[in-house]
Specification:
Oligomer: homodimer
Distance between the termini of chain A: 45 Å
Radius of gyration of chain A: 20 Å
Largest sheet of chain A: 7 strands, mixed
Strand order of the largest sheet of chain A: 1-2-9-6-5-3-4
Helix content of chain A: 40-55%
Mean pLDDT of chain A: 94
Low-confidence stretches of chain A: none
Structural class of chain A: alpha/beta
């Protein structure tokens, strides 16, 4: 078990990530003071007993599972339950679940009385390697992913591989989506992925690579907490197109759309001459290890139009995508919206032709 | 015209307050980039033309005037209009109006894409001396004042006495409520109030004392931006009881309730032996200069129960009030809720007896 610390100037102060087997048993019972748990219906079914054993008799808010719950009305319901439970500024909200739970509970904690404590206990691979760390909180709004939110650091994140054992294969795939994204940004993670490409779902491998991904993210967040200098923007690799598809097609989950987005944006990078050769081939192969078939959407071009609402864009006439360049290095490409949509459409056509 | 700067570690970075006659004409036209104006129906009726002349053809969101608009649904409507107007992270929201407009527009700006720019242009005396400065934003929620909000510094605050000329007498009274609060915290402001007690509505006096109040607040905010060390808590003098009455009785406005709250809490301070003699008498006289008749609510004790939800309270069984002690000095009194309610009831009875 190892700790990673993120030093920040913001709200909650510094953030400590307790990472590794046994982290839950060691740190969860130590959370002091009045607690308010947010979780979802799937996680509660699996871990309701553990929650009760660990945190005793404290209020538990159970969201319906799924991205649909990450909305303005659910946020209201959480804030209302917090008020009715007598939560105060010195209480701690515990986000016990995946990315949706972490994002919305984090936002509720940041808003309630202008900020209560928040501890993240991510139970999915995706939330462990990425969304629970770094203080980005949000809900979807008016058809735009994460359009309403706050930067608000959790005082602690408890990342325990214990929870991975109950994850369905699809959830592991989603987490691997973000892990491959880190692979495109970090030489060490890329090497680990290449070495383990024949068994990416191995638990020992996942535990180690989770620590590496969080370490990478912690450095980036400490450098650019509020996503203004450009460092943090790199973490959006694959996400511009991924988010646009996610909101348009809905059927798959976030991590799968990140993989699809990476694949489509890699196509753009190759077309623009920014990435190529063996490296591009090997990234494509990694993506296909996790997602056997990349969808060749017939209306990909229309779906991509949603990318104009991405937070990275200074205006809605251009789209900014972060793409792999070479090992451990990414680049930003800014394209007029029409040109971006055209390329996304071309990638879909190519996928269709190649069956 | 003078500038006051607040150095902060948070979100928007530093905050500059341009203060004095001519500030609007000088600084408002300089606000660069895409703009989104939030105002209310009263202010828009008076200043719609000035807004159009100054900011040109940019979207204007007009809230119905009044505290009732400071709610979760109005916040949603503002965020929706921002999305539909294509506001981006580099746009600037301009809060043009009183405290309600400033509080809700500031919160919308903090949440939209996790933060756009915000400039406050306060048009009421209360907003100028107090609420537009310091980055506290909020809406009322579930019957609790400012229960949902964020700390988010405006990049600029433009405080121009020009707008005071169109204020009804009652609005001046409300601003004077907060000014007297500053008088109970700051010797210089207390002296200015004492010297001008025969004409507290004089515009030259108001312009000078506004600068003094903002200077006082700027120092406190720089020391304790997030209201954790105790310094900023002093600015809540009169507000614990004021807020409780405000939500219970509704009929009056915030500044009037601050005056009433100060009067009732001064009674508690005297009963507890913390304040007294000539100083207490003189503060009471100042309050009565502005609010001729302090209401002797027959159900004051029940109304005071709402104070248990105040953000200062660590638990809902005690109530914390900030009271004047001696010139330029305040103190915090923590009371069991029942004792606090009893004293508030006793003060109401005394007011009734004295007619």
């Amino acid at each position: 078990m190892q700790d990673i610390e993120i030093l920040t100037s913001s709200a909650g102060g510094n953030s400590v990530i307790h990472c590794g087997a046994g982290a839950f048993d060691e740190y969860a019972p130590q959370i002091a003071g009045k607690k308010f748990i947010v979780t979802d219906s799937n996680v509660y079914r699996l871990y309701g007993k553990l929650i009760a054993q660990t945190f005793g008799d404290c209020p538990v808010f159970v969201l319906p599972a799924g991205e649909k719950s990450k909305n303005y009305n659910s946020l209201k319901n959480i804030l209302k339950a917090m008020t009715e439970s007598g939560v105060t500024r010195s209480s701690t909200v515990i986000a016990f679940g995946g990315g949706v739970v972490g994002d919305i509970a984090g936002l509720a904690a940041s808003l309630y009385m202008r900020g209560t404590g928040i501890v993240q206990i991510p139970t999915t691979l995706l939330a462990q390697v990425d969304s629970s760390v770094g203080g980005k909180t949000a809900i979807d709004f008016c058809g735009v992913k994460n359009a309403v939110g706050a930067f608000y650091q959790p005082s602690q994140v408890i990342v325990d591989p214990l929870f991975l054992r109950t994850l369905p294969a699809r959830e592991l795939r989603c987490g691997l989506g973000e892990i491959i994204k880190y692979g495109a940004l970090d030489c060490g993670i890329y090497a680990a992925l290449s070495q383990n490409q024949h068994d990416l779902s191995d638990y020992a491998f996942l535990e180690n690579v989770t620590f590496d991904c969080i370490s990478h993210k912690a450095k980036v967040v400490a450098e650019d907490e509020r996503d203004v200098s450009g460092a943090r923007k790199t973490l959006n690799l694959g996400h511009t197109t991924g988010h646009a598809f996610e909101l348009y097609y809905k059927r798959k989950s976030h991590g799968e759309f990140v993989l699809i987005g990476m694949y489509y944006e890699l196509y753009i990078a190759v077309r623009c001459g920014i990435c190529g050769g063996h490296y591009a081939e090997s990234l494509r192969a990694l993506i296909k290890k996790v997602l056997k078939k990349i969808p060749s959407y017939s209306d990909a071009q229309s779906a991509a139009a949603g990318a104009k609402y991405d937070k990275k864009n200074e205006e809605q006439s251009t789209v900014s995508v972060i793409v792999p360049k070479r090992e451990g290095e990414s680049a930003e490409i800014k394209l007029p919206i029409a040109e971006y949509m055209q390329m996304i459409g071309d990638c879909a056509k190519e996928l269709k032709q190649n069956g």
